[in-house]
Amino acid sequence: MAHKQTSEESDSQSWDIIKESHALSGESEELDKYYHKWADTYNEDVLNEQYSGPKYIVNFFTKLQNQEPENKREAKLGILDAGCGTGLVGIALKQKGYSHIDGCDLSEKMVEIAHQTDVYSSLTAGVDLNNMTDFQEKQYDVTISCGVFTLGHVPPSALEELIRITKTGGLVVMSTRNSYYDSTDFQAVCDRLENEGHIKVVEHIVGPYIAEEGSHYWAFRVC
């Protein structure tokens, strides 16, 4: 008789897959292969681990927008979901009324799944956040990146590309998982970019992310 997997076993397997992704080298080819293999079960695995990052970061962004003067509360903002994965952030943005959403990701398979959400105006696969050659300078009003700045993925310096493609006065809104923040020089990179006049920190909070660990959430104004 076939063994029926228990919810505890399923949760354990999901956590093992997520942990394994944090041990990757950060090389684009390795990441692409890993996410190609993981794409079909990604949503189920992160749901098992109570992944709240996408909804939390969109609520964080929406709160900031609500603090803007009324004439700047624009639902037609051009938004890039950088490292969109299967589209969880895009779905949360759509639910808040945003409709001009583009997405990009390194993994073609993840982008194929994101396309099925029908929330993106355009999607681009094969995008390395260290070198976003598909995107022009100052192209977007807002760039959001959730779940990308995590161990085994991109270095803190990738923030510079997110800044480059965001309009002056626009926002870069992103998450850095606690273990990533504690293990990298992300804070030093932020301090340098702010001291050099590229960004201003609008808000920085610590909030929920996944069952086992929280995340830092950031909003930078591009100068």
UniProtKB/TrEMBL annotation:
Keywords: Ubiquinone. This is Ubiquinone/menaquinone biosynthesis protein. Pfam families: Methyltransf_25. Residues 79-170 form the Methyltransferase domain. The keyword Membrane does not apply. It comes from Candidatus Thiomargarita nelsonii. CDD domains: AdoMet_MTases.
